[in-house]
Amino acid sequence: MADLVAVTKSDGDLIVPARRIQAEYVSALKLLRKRSQVWKPKVIRISARSGEGISEMWDKMKDFQDLMLASGELTAKRRKQQKVWMWNLIQESVLEHFRTHPTVREQIPLLEQKVLIGALSPGLAADFLLKAFKSRD
Known about the structure:
Organism: Homo sapiens (Human)
Protein name: MMAA protein
Order of helices and strands: EHEHHHH
GO molecular function: GTP binding; GTPase activity
Number of helices: 5
Helix content: 55-70%
Low-confidence stretches: none
InterPro entries: GTPase_ArgK, P-loop_NTPase
Radius of gyration: 25 Å
Mean pLDDT: 95
């Protein structure tokens, strides 16, 4: 989900297609669920060659930051993201620990192959691997 969409290369022969693309993005964004009480996603055309839209893009970015900070939405969003990031890191670490467990690592290739050929269900293969992991003592 974008807060600001920049349609690039809006210069020369590409101005007309860029305007069309901008209109299509504006229409598409109207169909999406509202994510903010204070900000509506914007679509602007920019050109590095001519400089068109660059300062407007910067202004929109600043407007977004100012509104989101003032409303508290940005801070709340960052807090939620940090919680998600914490759990993602835990999942990655636990999965890595699981996969590198000697007994599990030894059984993975055979069980994966059995699942691939349909000789074993994914649930049963997972159960075997989890039992191997739990009986590590």
